[in-house]
Amino acid sequence: MDNLARFYIGGGWVTPDSDQAMPVMNPATEDRIGDTILANETDVDRAVTAAVQAFEAFSRSSKQDRLDLLGLVLDESRKRHEDLAQAMRMEMGAPITMARAEQAESGIGHLEAFIAALRDHPEREELANGDTLLREPIGVCGLITPWNWPINQIALKVIPALATGCTCILKPSEHTPISAMIYAEILDAAGVPPGVFNLIQGDGPGAGNAMSGHPDIQMISFTGSTRAGRAITRNAAETIKRVTLELGGKSPNLVFADCDLQERVTGSVAECMYNSGQSCDAPTRLLVERTIYDEAVEIARKAADATAVGDPAEEGDHIGPLFDKLQYDRVQALIETGISEGARLVTGGPGKPEGMETGWYARPTIFADVRNDMTIAQEEIFGPVLVIIPFEDEEDAIRIANDTPYGLAAYIQCGDMDRAERVATRLRAGAVHINGGAFNYGSPFGGYKQSGNGREGGRFGLEDYQEVKTLHRP
Hints:
This protein has helices at residues 41-58, 63-79, 81-92, 96-120, 150-164, 177-190, 204-212, 226-236, 261-273, 293-305, 325-340, 375-378, 394-402, 417-424, 458-463; strands spanning 7-9, 12-14, 21-25, 32-37, 124-126, 132-137, 140-144, 167-171, 197-199, 219-223, 242-246, 252-255, 285-289, 344-347, 365-368, 385-391, 406-407, 409-413, 431-434, 448-449, 452-453, 466-471. The chain is α/β, with parallel strands linked by helices. The strands form 6 sheets. A 7-stranded mixed β-sheet has the order 14-15-16-13-12-18-19, with helices on both faces. Helix 2 crosses helix 6, helix 3 (81-92) packs across helix 4 and helix 4 runs parallel beside helix 5. The longest helix is centred in the N-terminal third of the chain and has 25 residues, at 96-120.
């Protein structure tokens, strides 16, 4: 925690120019963990200058040099695995069992996948027309990451920057600075050259705004809300920099009558509630075929009632709190909106679980008889709230599923794989999960429509950080 109030710039920990402190809170206990500093424009300029200076040499490093460096980062990441898990348990309320198995582990899984992708990724190739194609690092990258999957998103942005020979400035969410601090310590211990990676802490209106409009940053990669993504895109337009965005979602989950209803609805509820519902690709709209609707609602109710809510410090299969009071209040307001709009509250509802007065815990909540034009069916709630909508047939299911401004993920529960693939091709989403199929490290992640642009992970994630140059010879 010694570096929590310092920034990592130019290969060392430095005292910020800014003196604007922000408390870091434990959402389970409401206790103050410590304080971080919110960067100002001078801090951003200092980090960008270090990255610009480092780019000249690092951009000319060989692929093998970068593979060797990533191997050292992998070694150090494994050494700090428990530290990362405990950090995310404290700063954003991830239950420790899940923090180890998923939150911290994602930093290793993505890194291994990027190493494999880089080995096979050509930086020079001959085209059929006789020209030569070169892939080169885009330049200095500004990386802005969220609080809900802190290390997952840091790895998805920092690692491809290093892998392709870019230099970068990371601005994590100001609510989760501890895990980012530890990640900077990992990169330092691995021997990342000075200025290649830089860490500043800060908020969106301050540091984020300064980064997205900075003339010496060639690319911004942002994960967060669609509202913030719009603001970053507008601010970046003046300097015509590349902007990649991974934004919100309201993912449909289509349940057909021929699936294993008990298994698939129970699993769907668990996936919606996972990480306390704070995942952008969570299957939050359960679309159920009319002939099995009542049975599915009852299975979902039982599954939600069986979802344990508990202390993140305790081992076990339970969900933790929402990450802060602001998010808790927003979730509560949307639950009240669902009730006022006429949706049927099946279980859960406003308030905290019994006996959990301290901490920002929300009740696992299910609404049935929801219309797709209701607020709770269109807006991203980002809490443990599931809405259930009936559909008549395949065409109706596809229509409802696509009737959203988002397109990050979709889910299908179906006993007929031909039908599942047929429906999947018509869903406007970047990923479709069939019968519980999980995301695998190395696959591209990203969405259609207002869920963003660009892809993260594996080969496609590397390409986002590269420019393409062609050589034309006589």
